[in-house]
Amino acid sequence: MNAPLQTLNEMQRATSPFPESVTVKDWKATGRKVIGWVNPYVPEEIIHAAGMLPFQVAGDNEPVQMQGAEAYIYSNTCSYIRTCWQLQLDGKYGFLDGLVSCSFCDQDKRLYSVWEYYKKLPYMDILYAPRKRDEEAVHLYLGDLEDFRDRLSQCRLSRIPDRDVANSIRVYNRGRELMHRLYELRKRDRPPVTGAEALEVSKAAARLPRERFNELMEQLLDEIQRTGRQIKKARRLMVIGSDLHNTNQVAALETLDAVVVVDEMNCGIRYAWGQVDTQLPPMEALARYYVLGRPVDMHTWNSDGRLEFIGEMAEQYKVDGIISEIVRFCTYNGWDKFDLKKQMAQRGIPILELDLEYGHPAGAQVKIRAEAFMEMLESRAG
Amino acid sequence: MAVVGIDLGSQSTKVVILDGDVILGGASLQTGESAETEARMAVQEALRQAGLKREDLKAAVATGTLAVPVTAALNIAALKQRSAASCIATGAYFRFPQARTVLYVGADSSMAIRLSADGQVEDSVKNERCAVSSGALLDIVSRMLEVPVEELGPMSLQATAPETVSSRCVVFAEGEILSFIHRDPPVPVPDVIAGVHQSIAAGLWGMVQKLGVPSELLLCGGVARNAGIVKAIEAHLGKALLVPAQPQYVRALGAAVFARQMEREGVASC
Amino acid sequence: MSDASLITTEELATRLKMAAEGIKKVPGLMKSSVGYMELLQKYVERIATAKEKGKFVATHGTQQPIEIYEAMDVVGVFNEFWGVVSDVVKLESVPEALSISASTGTPGEVCSFFRNMDGLLHVGKWPRTDFFLYATSSCDNVKAFHTLGRRYGIASFGMERPHYPFTSRALDFWKNEHKRLIAFLEEQTGKKLDYDRLKETVRLSYRLTEICLEIDKLVAHVPSPMSSECFGGVLLALRLMCGTQDAVDFLTGLRDELQERVDNGIGAVKEERFRVMWSSFTPFFDPKLMGFMQQKYGAVSVCEMLARWRGESKWMLDPDDPLGNLAYRTQLAPGNCQYAPSIDWAENSVAQARIFTADGAIFNNNWGCKQAAGLGPIVRDELLRHCGVPTLTIACDVIDNTFTSRADIEAQLDGFFEMLEGSKAYQERRAHA
Predict the structure, then answer these.
(1) Which of A68, A207, A274, B79 is the most buried (most CB within 10 A)?
(2) Is B77's pLDDT higher than 90?
């Protein structure tokens, strides 16, 4: 049995209670602002350069019961956004000074509009995350970023200069580099962290001032090396699909003598991917990174790259099986199911498809299917 | 002048005979193979209680899911139909004129209605597709736990640590409840029932919220007889619910009130 | 249920022809109901005979610049309306196709317009298609075009535009996407676009807009002259046959008939008791429902948001810049702006409620349409707050008739119209009329 990671405990302490953590309270106490974002095409670097704290709006480990949210967003919608809105109704996101949408998906757009209509925050803005990955898209997105920078600048005394954006890029790049290292370590036969622990790290990155996160991440990697930690489980899994923030959902899979060694989530591996090019002018560098610099994700119309990426990661991380968890009503994930299954079958990698409600523990049906899947993986290995 | 209100629900027929402000009789019968037969029998039973004959009824209003197919078979003169929402609202207002929001929870559906100060329907919503916020889940739980439906309420009040049911779908909720029963050690029955009540109440509360924050909230329909559901909803409301006696008759009562109005306005002619 | 339930292009064409003949014999309908069926039939006939005439066929999504297809002689198949049109003549086809789609693993919670296409493609019953064309201008489901294109070896091209289309940068970008679309089509067809022809199809399309606005004025009349059997005609002309003389002729005929009815005091029903606006789409899943509402409640449909125009909608800025005009048009058709911040759509809904003096709104909450489900409550609240118009939300599937029972819908309609009748806002409106 491995001892809990001290640094991870500290990350969790610093991001507790959810969502208005001690860190957020301290931040606000100094008169500084917090700007919420939902999907990762809102460049946190610009918010950081403005001297504000970017904070991902999401759920956490406690399931959130719908108690009124569906009066504002009907229930035939993604439970991720209904969870966020319910938390807002419960007063949990009262600390936000602004919200920025990147029009990532239908739900992102509508959550933003609902927030704008029923609880308008002092700063609200919309970007557009291109569905195509090409030069025209970079150019369009760059225009949006420039406008975003200008408008956000109006919330402070001066225009956010390029040099501050460049500095923020360096800070965020460092975080990506450190998170990437942890992902690399998980390629080992005996990875040093469980999937649940790794997800907690990813969450912390999106909820803490990036400088603080970087410090803690360095400590974490150091602690991992010092303790020589190893997770010994029979099966290696990959989790793909919708973003999960309830680590219990991942932990539940890992009770079945398995360890989640890699994911394909926007809040996971893509959040840690690559580097913004510091050789380019900073705003252009951001545009290129956000549009082209990360692996193809579910919102890109041409999903060829996404399927390819999943297959490659599954092979690089030597996974025994893939858990494809999709939050109900997710159109993007829904349309990839058929070809995903086919392509993974061609690679000889079994997939288990699960439909989930965001943030809710897996029901009995899901557990039974997961167990059966694990037994099947075991018999393949044996 | 006696009038009658007939609520033709998918599971049972309920009849109320009204004279002025006095309820002379009421009857309820399970809907069986032939809905018409049960409906006729229910009317007969209510008449028997009231000591009246069919000819004594001066006006009639029918409502409910089966109102359209069944009314012809009832052979009551001048039978008119009114919508379920209007009848629920009117019946609730008759019992509690201070009610401003009415939550009706029936066997397989539920509805929330906002009333004006003079008892008119201002807005209404019904439960969405899944029957989890209605009596349907209680029927399932009753069968699974082998506890009669009417005992679910009192038993849930004995719970010490209600076990949350998170599923929004009846089918998955069933699976969850099964896992509670088969856990080692099993979750105590009162805790299972209380958890189910909380889940139902959460869904109903969400529905009620669509009409705005309720002030005076009245609960009616068959499920309102369940003290556990009442308690679970009151936990959200933060104060006592208005619950009429014999809440399952509210819709039929509302229909009877409309019949009375028709009779007084002279629009009911035999 | 079996393959026999599924409608093919040929069968659809045949049945529409029969329907067009049949409707002539039904007494009491508007004359234009014949033209409506004939336009539908012509549309499907074009698709059925396209290949033998050596034409390219594009299955496309919503809010496309169909004028470009017309100018390049490419026959369009609007994927969404395939389900709508098949419901007109063969209700059992859609549920069967959805069932096939489900069997391939496609979740039931995505749009059934697309699931219908998915199912029919899977068994080879979708119209033969050379390429898929789509745009951001609707929702996330357009991703299915690329996915299905890959699966069936069909080339595809998607145009995108920012979610907030009201800036000049957005418009420039969007205009450039039209150029890229043309480049794609030229490559696929091996033919160059004749810009003079495009100017002509755009001119015809603009003529459609003008006639639409004239029709709006007539329909806004109290009592409204537009009866349910022709109500869908405007959207049909706009979305299926935009840029054609046929569509202009049809709408001109419809307008003339409506004018005649207004001149002679003829309303859709003898006693117009309620004026209904459709907050999103009309009940495609139940083609007889609007007629039923007219008959039972005297409830006349006066407005559907998908077919609306903003203000005077003068989108023909420069006859020599057809692409610029088409790009600009997007801002002026609120139907297009469903892919835009909710508040804009809601404000437009309020404006339309006033223009058409609506008494009530019905929002068909399509199970698989999460973008509308996130929009519905705001529209509901705005309509009530600003013009006292309540909304009935019906849980349904946009084209699957089996999703909700008719009895259930009727019960909801009963309650809704009773409530409307008793409401102060309704009574005041009637007193002023």
Answers:
(1) A207
(2) no
C95 vs C115: CA distance, rounded Å: 10
* E-state strands within A254-366: 258-263, 321-327, 351-356
Average pLDDT score over residue span C175-180:
97
d(CA A360, nearest CA chain B) in Å: 7
What is the structure's pLDDT at B1?
85
Per-residue pLDDT tens digits for A123-157: 999 999 999 999 999 999 999 999 999 999 999 98
What is the CB-side half-sphere exposure of residue A210 using CA atoms within 13 A? 27
Rounded to whole angstroms, how far apart are CA atoms C302 and C224? 7
Per-residue pLDDT reduced to its tens digit, C247-301: 999 999 999 999 999 999 999 999 999 999 999 999 999 999 999 999 999 999 9
Three-state DSSP class for residue A98: strand
Q: Tell the CATH superfamily of the B1-96+249-270 domain.
A: ATPase, nucleotide binding domain (3.30.420.40)
What domains does chain C contain, in order, with CATH numbers?
A: 9-196 (3.40.50.11890), 265-432 (3.40.50.11900)
Q: What's the pLDDT band for B267 if we cut at 50, 70, 90? A: low
Compute the nearest-CA separation of B129 from chain C (Å). 7
Adjacent-strand bridge partners of C159: C135
Give the residue from C361, C351, C354, C306 showing the smallest Cα distance to C333. Answer: C306
Record: contact B83-C393, CB cut-off 8 A: no
Residue B269 pLDDT: 40
CA triple A307-A312-A318, angle to 5 deg: 130
How far apart are the C-alpha atoms of C162 and C363, rounded to whole Å?
26
Closest to A164 in 3D by CA, of A30, A282, A37 = A282
pLDDT tens digits, C14-39: 999 999 999 999 999 999 999 999 99
Instruction: Give the 3-state secondary structure of residue C281.
Output: coil
ipTM above 0.90, yes or no: yes
CA atoms within 13 A on the CB side of B245: 2
pLDDT tens by residue, A189-244: 999 999 999 999 999 999 999 999 999 999 999 999 999 999 999 999 999 999 99
d(CA B69, CA C411): 13
Instruction: Please check whether residue C322 is in contact with residue C202, taking contact to mean a CB–CB distance below 8 angstroms.
Output: yes
Do B175 and A65 lie within an 8 Å CB cutoff? no
Does the domain formed by B97-243 have CATH 3.40.50.300? no
**Structure confidence by residue, pLDDT tens digits, C193-217:** 999 999 999 999 999 999 999 999 9
Q: Give A71's contacts in chain B (Cβ within 8 Å).
A: 206, 209-211
> A272 and A329 in one domain?
yes
Closest residue, chain C, to B116 (C-alpha): C423
Q: Do A143 and C169 touch (CB under 8 A)?
A: yes
Lowest mean pLDDT among A179-183, A342-346, B127-131: B127-131
CA angle A100, A103, A108 (to 5 degrees): 80
Please report the sign of the dihedral spanned by the C-alpha atoms of residue C161, residue C166, residue C167, residue C172: positive
How far is residue C215 from each of residues C233, C253, C291, C358, measured CA to CA in Å?
11, 11, 20, 16
List the structure tokens of C117: 């296409």
What percent of chain A is predicted at pLDDT more than 70?
Answer: 99
Q: Please state, in angstroms and as integers, the Cα–Cα distance from residue A186 to each residue in A46, A378, C220, following that order.
A: 31, 21, 66
Q: Is B166 close to A360, i.e. CB distance below 8 A?
A: yes
Tokens of C366: 């399509």
Q: What is the mean pLDDT of residues B239-266?
A: 93
Q: Which of A355, A325, A358, A362 is nearest to A64 (CA)?
A: A358
- Secondary structure percentages of chain A, helix, strand, coil, to 5: 50, 10, 40
Q: Is residue A263 part of a domain?
A: yes
Cα Dmax for chain A: 66
